[in-house]
Design a protein that fits this description.
The structure holds two protein chains of two kinds.
Chain A lengths: L6 E3 L4 H9 L4 E4 L5 H6 L7 E4 L9 E3 L3 E5 L4 H6 L1 H6 L1 H7 L5 H6 L2 H7 L5 H8 L3 E6 L2 E5 L1 H4 E3 L2 E2 L6 E8 L5 E8 L9 E10 L2 E10 L6 E2 L1 H7 L6 H8 L16 H19 L3
Parallel strand pairs in A: 1-3, 2-3
Antiparallel strand pairs in A: 4-5, 5-10, 6-7, 6-10, 8-9, 11-12, 12-13, 13-14
Chain B lengths: L17 H5 L15 E7 L5 E7 L1 H4 L4 E6 H8 L24 E2 L5 E7 L2 H8 L3 E6 L6 H4 L13 E9 L2 H5 L4 E12 L8 E7 L2 E6 L4 H12 L6 E4 L15 H13 L3 E4 L2 H7 L3 E12 L5 E13 L9 H6 L10 E10 L13 H19 L3 H8 L8 E2 L5 E2 L4 H12 L1 H13 L4 E11 L7 H6 L8 E7 L5 E5 L8 H13 L6 E4 L17 H28 L6 E4 L2 E4 L2 E7 H10 L12 E6 L8 E11 L4 E12 L6 H20 L31 E4 L17 H18 L13 H12 L27
Parallel strand pairs in B: 1-12, 10-11, 14-15, 20-21, 27-28
Antiparallel strand pairs in B: 1-5, 2-4, 2-6, 3-5, 7-15, 8-13, 9-10, 9-12, 13-14, 16-17, 18-26, 19-20, 19-25, 22-23, 23-24, 26-27
Helix pairs in contact in B: 11-12, 11-20, 16-17, 17-18, 19-20
Classes of the chains: A alpha+beta, B alpha+beta.
The complex binds flavin-adenine dinucleotide.
The site of flavin-adenine dinucleotide has 30 residues of chain A, from strand 2, helix 6, helix 7, helix 8 and strand 10.
């Protein structure tokens, strides 16, 4: 890797990291480096200072916070796949994290980095969107909480203000009756999703009481498939009914056309894959 | 004492070279460092086609850590033209090919300037300070359009490089009145070789002598070519290929970067290094394939072939590299494959475009040919309502007909297509899978099954020099080996086949162990340094074992014969009284009396009592030229499941039965097949070097150029049949490219087989999910389906047994 030159600092606290960021407009946070380093290598980014979060231990790990899990921004994809609290209360996150790239990337890449990078082809943005998570952000003026809908602004763009750091993600625990499935359609195991569907369904009396769907790579930000959620709510828990509900999956989306797929094919895939993901989430 | 009672040849020996490779103890070219080493970085054209109107190097020249900066005009007088060693026709157009562009760039990625700096960071920083102004010229991207009279020209001489023809038999007669004529056009997409180790070169000038380390497949050829291009006397050049991390043809090249590194080192009088990044390499390493294949067959009503007519357009890219124009010719002899016919015509036109030059890529010409013939044989079978294996069997050369001279003029020595196919069918459970396929079709299942067949052959062991000469190739196809018996009985083997991952050190050791009666561990194989291995033709075209192995056996024989004379003197008997048994020379009738090669080597070293006229030392040299190619073959069968709702293709099972003659090391052979099959699958399903309308490579990184990993392919079932080659003493045929040649058509045939019930006759490679989905939909509806999740309108099911077909 031959990037342009930059300074480097490894603060020991969130306060110090925020201060370092606030002092230099061209500074950038580095967590696992799995998205930032490729940009530096290709000289698409020229930060003057890298603020490495790696020394801030409070940003690591998963904590039980009552009816939610508090996931530190530095928690790696690999840790998400192994953490018992995640497995018990937010299994969708573990399943999706297990589909990211390869073991080397999963051991370095972090949830905070994946969300801050805001790649609509990334898996975790759609997953936390479906999970109704809250992003906890700390800046010079203190902390604030942001919903996914307000956090992801555009392609590779968040509403993080200069000097702000994503410190944790608060994920409500899935209660009884919830099932989930992440359906990732990617051409090779190491490739990003052409389309991904994060589906959650709560079953009750042979019906789907509630469904939540997040779509990966169907627009410049992760998308909630509201029409499918409405159609699925109250529907019979059957593959046919889930398929029918999924016919609305591409409503309100604006998928890209790129090397991998044209928009119309993505729309088609969103419908097919949402039907499959919903059926699995509903346990049928 | 001989330590090896059993034969080494045939044993699944773990590779000797792996200990240093997998523990990182070796030196790749990029690991080499020298006192005062400077780093080179190249500025490359962002345009496919442009005139360079000005270059300003001032800011770069004064940047910190920069030693020198050069643009084309600075090196024009000494850089020469990169060589093309295969002028396939008398009137071929071979444009001048400056290593660094001087006034015009003809592909995105062509070098326009070079920085030499203290380190890679300073060099890369300085590149950003170079200011080049271009005047855009129209890109030339499409081969048929490039041949139109009004097309913009890549070179002043025009966009056609050559047309080459091979013909045998009366083609008109074969086609006239033929009951069956099938014509197809197939596209061989452009591929990027993606060796794991990027290219790198280090040059050390010492006085007027130069040592080059390069991540190359061809140190010997490179040395000669560098002398010819730069004018540096050949004996002042030494080229070393250290351990090389893969090539697949991409390092069978004399590159602009190698020539420029040499020139810059000479200019500066200090050692320089250049190492490419993956993105740089994707645009600058020569690409492979890229042909439009028009193929036509004429057959009798029962499927017996009468004639074959092939018309190719082959994309040369912007320039002719070392064997660019010859690559399609290697395919010319292979379109007829294992089949008998009365007439054949092959016609190929090489076309210039403003894209990265193409050249040899694993299989080089033969995968293209095999794909086309194996695909159209399936089309013929479908046309006739026959099983694809039935129509093949009707046409292939029967085992009792060998040796057989084919319509393209090659003489296949041995083979047994019946045996390989029978074994493959058995392992694959062909009949059962066909039943399952029918059932799925009858039920209009959303996930269909397809069976793909590829009964390939290829020509290996490049090559008889006289044949190369007749094809106007500039060099020969011989190979060299030498044996040096050391005083302690250890053996140093030198081979001219420079390995780059094939396991030569292990296989050569096994052969020598048997030939000289020494332990496997006592043999060391040296290669890749022109000062040690003073001559050779290097490694490509599955030639190392077939040609280099023959030279090795010959060198061993010479050592044995000399040892016999010395042993006879040691034991005071006549040489004719000795026989070679259990790895030593023993007195006939008195086997207790004998000498091992080691004992004889020490006697030769001491040289106290050598017979008159016998020189001290025990070593030998052998250079051999093959009489013919070798012809491995096999039957590969692939089963795919195609999800018709999404276009997803899953390879369910893959059986490869290969006849590669005798096997020296089954472990290495399996490795070559695994890698080869995956590389062919990659062409079928994943890989394509794509350009946008302005001629920029859009698959410049591995995020966009998709290569498969182990996670994307199934486990393979490998088996072998054996008809030893009669053309070399080892009876070997070559296996370096077999998997790649065989697997691409097996996979695509399987996909098309799954989709034939929908009316699909072809899917362009790579068969991505989107392409498969569109193929289904355009065949069925001529339009995308109204809503997802619905199965496309059902065509009549194949082999329908009941009233299935309800969606
Ligand atoms: C080969 C490869 C394949 C991949 N495939 C996939 C895939 O299939 N699916 C997928 O989802 N992802 C994929 N990724 C991306 C991967 O998930 C990255 O790990 C992730 O996007 C970034 O996390 P990181 O910790 O490495 O962040 P970094 O690279 O360190 O940072 C990324 C960006 O986020 C910012 N940032 C990081 N942490 C914070 C923070 N706490 N607060 C504020 N800003 C922050 C940085 O400044 C930078 O702009 C792949 C990556 C690679 C290299």
């Amino acid at each position: 890797m031959i990037p342009a030159s930059f300074d480097y600092t490894r603060p020991g606290s969130v306060e110090a990291a925020v201060a370092a960021l606030a002092a230099d407009e061209e500074a950038k946070v580095i967590a696992g480096g799995q998205s930032l380093l490729p940009l530096l290598r290709l000289r698409f980014a020229y930060p003057t200072l890298l603020v490495d979060l790696g020394g801030i231990s409070e940003l690591r790990g998963v904590r039980d916070a009552g009816d939610a899990l508090e996931i530190g921004a530095l928690t790696t994809h690999y840790e998400l796949t192994r953490d018992p609290l995640i497995a018990a209360h937010a299994g969708l996150l573990a399943q999706a994290a297990g589909t990211i790239a390869d073991p080397a990337v999963r051991h370095r890449g972090t949830i905070g980095g994946a969300l801050s990078h805001a790649d609509p082809a990334g898996d975790l943005p759609a997953v936390i969107t479906a999970l109704d998570a809250v992003l906890v952000v700390t800046g010079p003026g203190g902390s604030r909480e942001v919903s996914p809908g307000d956090f992801f602004a555009d392609y590779l763009t968040t509403t993080l203000a200069p000097g702000e750091i994503l410190t944790s993600v608060r994920v409500p625990k899935l209660g009884d009756g919830w099932g989930y499935h992440y359906e990732k359609f990617h051409p090779t195991a190491q490739a990003w999703a052409i389309v991904g569907v994060a589906a959650l369904a709560r079953r009750s009396n042979g019906h789907v009481a509630e469904a939540r769907i997040g779509l990966t790579n169907m627009g410049s930000t992760p998308v909630r498939a509201g029409a499918v959620e409405a159609a699925a709510a109250g529907a019979e828990a059957s593959a046919t009914a889930m398929r029918a509900a999924a016919q609305h999956a591409d409503q309100g989306t604006s998928p890209p056309s790129d090397l991998r797929a044209a928009a119309d094919y993505r729309r088609h895939l969103a419908r097919v894959l949402t039907g499959r993901a919903l059926a699995k989430a509903a346990g049928v | 004492m001989t330590a090896t009672a059993d034969h080494e040849v045939g044993r699944a020996r773990a590779r000797k070279e792996d200990a240093r490779l997998v523990t990182g103890q070796t030196n790749w070219t990029d690991n080499i460092t020298l006192p005062g080493l400077a780093q080179v970085a190249f500025l490359r054209s962002p345009h496919a086609h442009a005139r360079i109107t000005s270059v300003n190097l001032d800011a770069a020249r004064t940047a910190p850590g920069v030693f020198a900066v050069f643009a084309g005009p600075d090196v024009a007088a000494e850089q020469g033209s990169l060589p093309c060693a295969w002028p396939v026709t008398e009137d071929i157009v071979i444009p001048n090919h400056p290593p660094m562009a001087v006034d015009t760039v003809r592909y995105a990625g062509e070098i326009v300037a070079a920085v030499v700096a203290r380190d890679r960071y300073a060099a890369a920083d300085a590149l950003e300070l170079i200011d080049v102004e271009y005047e855009a010229l129209p890109p030339v991207l499409d081969m048929p359009a490039a041949l139109e009279p009004g097309s913009p020209k890549v070179h002043a001489e025009g966009n056609k490089s050559y047309t080459w023809t091979l013909a045998n038999g009366d083609l008109d007669a074969a086609f006239a009145g033929a009951p069956v004529v099938i014509e197809r056009t197939y596209r061989q997409q452009r591929l990027i070789p993606e060796a794991m180790e990027p290219r790198a070169v280090v040059v050390a000038p010492v006085a007027d002598e130069f040592t080059m380390w390069s991540s190359t497949q061809i140190p010997h050829v490179l040395k000669v070519m560098l002398a010819l291009v730069t004018g540096i006397p050949e004996h002042k050049l030494r080229v070393i290929a250290p351990d090389v991390g893969g090539g697949f043809g991409s390092k069978l090249q004399v590159t602009a970067e190698e020539v420029l590194a040499l020139i810059l080192a000479r200019r500066l009088g200090r050692p320089v290094k250049w190492t490419e990044s993956r993105t740089e390499g994707n645009a600058a390493v020569h690409h492979g394939r890229d042909q439009i294949q028009k193929i036509r067959i004429a057959a009798e009503a029962d499927g017996t072939l009468r004639g074959l007519d092939v018309d190719l357009l082959a994309d040369m890219g912007a320039y002719l590299m070392i064997v660019t124009p010859g690559v399609p010719l290697l395919g010319a002899f292979m379109f007829n494959a294992i089949y008998k016919m009365d007439a054949y015509r092959f016609n190929c036109t090489g076309v210039f475009t403003t894209k990265t030059p193409t050249d040899a890529y694993r299989g080089a010409g033969r995968p293209e040919a095999t794909y086309a013939i194996e695909h159209i044989m399936d089309d013929l079978a479908v046309h006739l309502g026959q099983d694809p294996l039935e129509v093949r069997e009707r046409n292939w050369i029967k085992h009792e007909e060998f040796p057989y001279t084919t319509i393209s003029g090659l003489t296949y020595d041995t083979g047994n297509y019946e045996a390989a196919t029978a074994l493959a069918k058995d392992l694959f459970q062909y009949a059962e899978l066909r039943k399952e396929q029918s059932a799925r079709n009858a039920a209009s299942a959303a996930v269909r099954l397809g069976l793909g067949v590829s009964t390939y052959t290829e020509m290996c062991g490049l090559a008889p020099s006289r044949v190369l000469g007749s094809l106007r190739y500039a060099a020969g196809g011989w190979e060299h080996a030498a044996i040096r018996m050391l005083p302690t009985g250890m053996v140093e083997v030198i081979t001219g086949s420079s390995a780059h991952g094939q396991g030569h050190e292990t296989a050569w050791s096994q052969i020598v162990a048997d030939e000289l009666g020494v332990p496997f561990e006592d043999v060391r194989v040296l290669h890749g340094d022109t000062a040690i291995s003073h001559k050779g033709m290097d490694t490509y075209g599955s030639r190392s074992l077939v040609v280099g192995g023959t030279a090795l056996v010959s060198a061993c024989g010479k050592v044995r014969e000399k040892a016999r004379v010395i042993a006879a003197a040691m034991m005071e008997v006549a040489p004719t009284d000795l026989e070679w048994a259990d790895g030593r020379w023993a007195v006939r009738g008195d086997p207790d009396q004998g000498k091992t090669i080691g004992e004889i080597a020490f006697a030769a070293f001491a040289a106290h009592d050598l017979p008159d006229g016998v020189e001290p030392s025990l070593d030998s040299d052998a250079t051999i030229d093959p009489d013919n190619f070798s012809y491995p073959h096999g039957t590969h069968l692939c089963a795919v499941e195609v999800d018709t709702e999404t276009g997803w293709v899953k390879i369910r099972s893959y059986v490869a039965v290969d006849d590669i003659g005798n096997v020296i090391n089954p472990l290495i052979v399996d490795g070559q097949l695994h890698g080869g099959i995956v590389q062919g699958i990659a062409q079928a399903l994943f890989e394509e070097a794509a350009y946008d309308d302005s001629g920029n490579l859009v698959t410049a990184s591995l995020a966009d150029y998709l290569i498969p990993s182990a996670a994307d392919v199934p486990s393979f079932t490998l088996a072998r049949t054996q008809t030893p080659s009669t053309l070399n003493p080892l009876g070997v045929k070559g296996v370096g490219e077999a998997g790649t040649i065989a697997s691409t058509p097996a996979v695509v045939n399987a996909i098309v087989d799954a989709l034939r019930p929908f009316g699909v006759t072809d899917v362009a490679m790579p068969c991505t999910p989107e392409r498969v989905w569109r193929a289904i939909n355009s065949a069925v509806n001529n339009a995308p389906p109204a809503l997802g999740g619905t199965t496309p309108r059902q065509p009549p099911a194949q082999n329908q047994t009941d009233g299935g077909g309800a969606a």
